[in-house]
Specification:
Its cofactor is FAD. This protein folds into 4 domains: 4-89, 2-Layer Sandwich (Uridine Diphospho-n-acetylenolpyruvylglucosamine Reductase, domain 2), CATH 3.30.43.10; 96-212, Uridine Diphospho-n-acetylenolpyruvylglucosamine Reductase, domain 3; 214-321, Alpha-Beta Plaits, CATH 3.30.70; 329-415, Alpha-Beta Plaits, CATH 3.30.70. It starts with a helix and ends in a 15-residue tail after the last helix. The protein has helices at 4-14, 22-27, 49-62, 114-121, 138-144, 151-154, 157-160, 189-193, 227-239, 252-262, 280-296, 308-327, 346-358, 386-405, 424-428, 430-442, and strands at residues 18-19, 42-44, 66-69, 86-89, 96-100, 105-108, 126-127, 161-167, 173-176, 202-209, 211-212, 216-223, 246-250, 271-278, 300-305, 332-336, 366-369, 374-382. The longest helix is centred in the last third of the chain and has 20 residues, at 308-327. It has 457 residues and is α+β, with helices and mostly antiparallel strands. α1 (4-14) packs antiparallel against α3, α10 crosses α12 (308-327) and α13 packs antiparallel against α14 (386-405). The protein contains 16 helices and 18 strands. The strands form 4 sheets. Strands 15-12-14-13-17-18-16 form a 7-stranded antiparallel beta sheet, sandwiched between helices. The chain binds flavin-adenine dinucleotide. Flavin-adenine dinucleotide is lined by residues 32, 67-75, 78-79, 90, 110, 132-134, 136-137, 139-141, 143-144, 146-148, 197-198, 202-203, 322, 413-415, 449.
């Protein structure tokens, strides 16, 4: 509980921008997936860095947990409040502050979403490429080190964040990084905060790298006789220097669901969905060379779309796939796996996961960003059936154990939150204790997003 004095002081500072309304609390305690609702005691909507600093300093004085909130799309209960406290929702700090076109940089407030930023950039010839499927906030994306379909070409949030402004757990405001493209000046604090899931401080401003909008874009789709054949094609294409902007895998089960529930026209087989960015000539050449490789691997029905409408239809379907899969089993919720393995082992990993899911009582279509070795099984469980949830967690744990054996990670892009915490020791060993030491050094009272990422006391 937040002490009455603290609520009084926050109310005096924020007026109606402090809420203790039931629906507001419930909304900020919910996760997209299977995690139980864990609401905070209050939610606030600050308007600038100075206000965030005063809020955090006040919470520090009273020992109140502080949880950052972007758009709440993180999948592992990251922004829930297992110990109550104050959720700081950044929806009123969503401005694009400065576009530095010549430096190919932009300064934004953390609540700005990737969609809003790209709309603002449309006339500049520049774009922000990281695309996690949901229209997430850039602050939240930095905090989960998000990536998605385009990481294979443009990289993840780790590669895009040039500098940050952060409010530390005692209310101090620091800046990490500069506008310069590189620096050898000391510890890389920007890299430390990216992926910290709000456990070290609240981000109040980001300086992000931008990229040129491609002159031409084309998309392609093809069906493969097996998962192995699809993955082998991806490996060969990468070795030959082809650089698609997206290479997405969908398995036969996903293809069947897209056909039945979203008007898809896929063969019931594993597919690759691709997008190429570049000049007209480069895009045509890459698409053709990829088509040749796919044909050698026995792929059929290679369709190549240069028209914007066709491309949009394909990628809209891919972006909606998570919700389409959920809707294919009404009333279900999902345990979403997110392992990432060296690409050479990906065929094995997916096939083993597929066999284990087939032998289980629950459905689990698989799709993923195969250019990076990252894939997701969407394990659909009946909300009211603990046996199904237990089966899904067993499957998920098995996939992670296998990924770790292969030299991979428990989470390629979704992050730790509550759902992946129990894998941290196995993945990092003694390095996890180092993360705990860093947390204690920056947040000795443990008020920032408690219960997440580091060993709990
Ligand atoms: C349909 C669907 C598809 C998805 N696909 C992908 C995908 O392909 N790739 C991918 O990477 N993710 C994916 N995600 C997950 C999600 O979109 C990402 O994790 C995203 O980065 C979360 O952003 P958000 O703004 O919703 O953050 P939130 O969920 O609000 O917060 C995420 C974390 O960041 C913290 N936080 C938020 N803002 C701040 C701040 N300003 N300062 C400090 N801490 C803060 C929160 O406390 C929390 O720990 C998907 C989600 C959905 C629903």
């Amino acid at each position: 509980m937040i002490p009455d004095d603290a609520i009084g002081a926050l109310g005096a500072m924020l007026g109606e921008r402090l809420s203790t309304g039931k629906s507001d609390l419930a909304l900020h305690g919910r996760s997209e997936t299977w995690h139980a609702e864990m609401p905070p005691d209050a939610v606030c909507y600050p308007r600038d860095t100075e206000e965030v600093s005063r809020i955090v300093a006040l919470c520090a004085r009273y020992g109140v947990p502080v949880i950052g909130w972007g758009t709440g799309t993180a999948l592992e209960g990251h922004a829930s409040a297992p110990r109550g406290g104050l959720t700081v929702d950044f929806r009123e700090m969503a401005a694009v502050l400065e576009v530095r076109a010549e430096d190919m940089l932009v300064r934004v407030q953390p609540g700005c979403t990737r969609g809003a930023l790209n709309t603002e950039l449309r006339a500049t010839g520049l774009m922000f490429p990281v695309d996690p499927g949901a229209d997430a906030s850039l602050g939240g994306m930095a905090m989960t080190r998000a990536s998605g379909t385009t990481a294979v070409r443009y990289g993840t949030m780790r590669d895009q964040v040039r500098a940050l402004e952060v409010v530390l757990p005692d209310g101090r405001v620091i800046r990490t990084g500069t506008l310069a493209a590189k620096s050898s000046a000391g510890y890389d604090l920007t890299g430390l905060f990216v992926g910290s899931e709000g456990t070290l401080g609240l981000v109040t401003e980001l300086t992000l790298k931008l990229h040129g909008q491609p002159e031409a874009v084309s998309a392609a789709v093809c069906a493969f006789p097996s998962t192995e054949a699809a993955i082998e094609t991806v490996i060969l294409a990468t070795q030959m220097g082809l650089r698609p902007a997206r290479i997405e895998f969908v398995d036969a089960a996903t293809a069947a669901i897209l056909n039945a529930h979203d008007g898809g026209r896929f063969e019931e087989a594993p597919h690759l969905l691709l997008e190429f960015h570049g000049s007209d000539a480069a895009v045509a050449e890459e698409a053709e060379r990829f088509g040749d490789l796919a044909a050698e691997a026995g792929a059929g029905g290679y369709r190549w779309a240069t028209q914007a409408e066709e491309r949009t239809a394909l990628w809209t379907m891919r972006h909606r796939a998570y919700h389409t899969i959920l809707a294919s089993r009404p009333g279900s919720t999902a345990v979403v796996t997110d392992v990432c393995v060296p690409i050479s082992r990906m065929g094995d990993a997916i096939e083993r996961a597929r066999a284990e899911i087939a032998a289980s009582p629950i459905p689990g279509p698989i799709l993923g960003h195969v250019g990076d070795g990252n894939y997701h099984a969407i394990l659909l469980v009946d909300r009211g059936d603990p046996a199904e949830l237990a089966a899904a967690k067993r499957l998920s744990d098995g996939m992670v154990a296998h990924a770790l054996e292969l030299g991979g990670t428990a989470t390629g892009e979704h992050g730790v939150g509550l759902g992946k915490l129990h894998f941290m020791e196995r993945e990092h060993g003694a390095a996890w204790d180092v993360m705990g030491a860093i947390k204690r050094a920056i947040d000795p009272e443990g008020i920032m997003n408690p219960g997440k990422l580091v060993r709990q006391n």
